[in-house]
Amino acid sequence: MESHKAIVHGFHHLFPSVTVVSEEHDHSDTQNQPVDIDMLDITKIGDDLHNKEDEQVSVDDILVWVDPLDATQEYTENLIKYVTTMVCIVVKGVPVAGVIHQPFLKKTFWAWTNHGHSKDLSKPVVNEASLRRPRIIVSRSHAGSVNVTAKSAFGEDVTIIPAGGAGFKVLSLFNDIADAYVHKTLIKRWDICAGDAILRSFGGKMTTLHGTEITYGEQFVVKNSGGLLATLNNHEHFLHKLSALATSSPVKKT
């Protein structure tokens, strides 16, 4: 996959000592498969940084998670609005910078904690109605089961929005499409790391449905069990209301 080659080769070329974990990993020598980086679109972020001071960290503390094609199923169905490419930079297990790129819409969103974010990202104004009549975005595959629990918790006024792709769902929180993103089943860390980093930059949260913080420092631990809840506001409120989902999303050893 060309996006996998471009991203992974780019990191290995510029930062050869940094460990990169990609969903499309294979046994070929990606480091020796150069991509013409000059042909790629470059998003310059300098003007959007409010803090341009460098941070000195050990290369051993850095891990990069890459998802070259999120929403693969939707891609095969030509539902291209859901498709994203994501990159996340982790330091000591904590996601500090994330990029979500929508290749077919030619839009790129990024955030670097305590440094800045893309100008197209902003935190919606808190709406108290979201506590009574929340909009919850979920995977297309299990919208029905979340709907039952959500209506039990919030009443008939809750809105369930089926959608594809973890990246798209996180962006929906910023676009004021949804108030919470819920996932019931196992999900891979390369699917959620970039979104987690961006949410953290805005004071948002991404946890399991049990309220446990998700860490990303082990390159061979790719699975996140225990479900997922992501919000920009009122995280504890949604966690409490949707607690019944946690019982059906057990934490498993990975």
Topology record:
Elements: H1 2-14, E1 19-22, E2 62-70, H2 72-76, E3 84-91, E4 94-102, E5 107-112, E6 116-117, H3 129-132, E7 135-139, H4 143-154, E8 159-163, H5 166-174, E9 180-183, E10 187-188, H6 189-201, E11 205-207, E12 223-224, E13 228-231, H7 235-241, H8 243-247
Pfam family, one: Inositol_P
Family: Belongs to the inositol monophosphatase superfamily.
EC number: 3.1.3.25
Quickly list its features:
transmembrane helix, 6-stranded mixed sheet, 254 residues, EC 3.1.3.25, alpha+beta, 13 strands, D-Maltodextrin-Binding Protein, domain 2, Inositol_monophosphatase_CS, 5-stranded mixed sheet, 3'-nucleotidase activity, 8 helices, single chain, metal-binding
Give an overview in words:
The model has no long low-confidence stretch (mean pLDDT 88). The protein has 2 domains: 117 residues, Fructose-1,6-Bisphosphatase, subunit A, domain 1 (Fructose-1,6-Bisphosphatase, Chain A, domain 1, 2-Layer Sandwich); 118 residues, D-Maltodextrin-Binding Protein, domain 2 (3-Layer(aba) Sandwich), CATH 3.40.190.80. A hairpin with a 4-residue loop joins β4 and β5. With 254 residues, the protein is an alpha+beta fold. α5 packs parallel to α6. Strands 1-2-3-4-5-6 form a 6-stranded mixed beta sheet, sandwiched between helices. The chain has 8 helices and 13 strands. The two termini are 27 Å apart.
Number of DSSP-assigned strands: 13
- Output the radius of gyration: 18 Å
Q: What about the largest sheet?
A: 6 strands, mixed
Note the run of SSEs as H and E.
Answer: HEEHEEEEHEHEHEEHEEEHH
Supply the number of structural domains.
Answer: 2
Fraction in helix: 25-40%
> Roughly what is the average pLDDT, rounded to an integer?
88
Low-confidence stretches: none
The CATH architecture designation of the largest domain is 3-Layer(aba) Sandwich
Number of helices, where a helix is a run of at least 4 consecutive DSSP H or I residues: 8
Class per helix and strand makeup = alpha+beta
Principal-axes geometry comes out as globular
The CATH topology of the largest domain corresponds to D-Maltodextrin-Binding Protein, domain 2
CATH class descriptor name of the largest domain? Alpha Beta
Enzyme class: hydrolase
Membrane topology: Single-pass membrane protein
Protein name: inositol-phosphate phosphatase
Subcellular location: Membrane
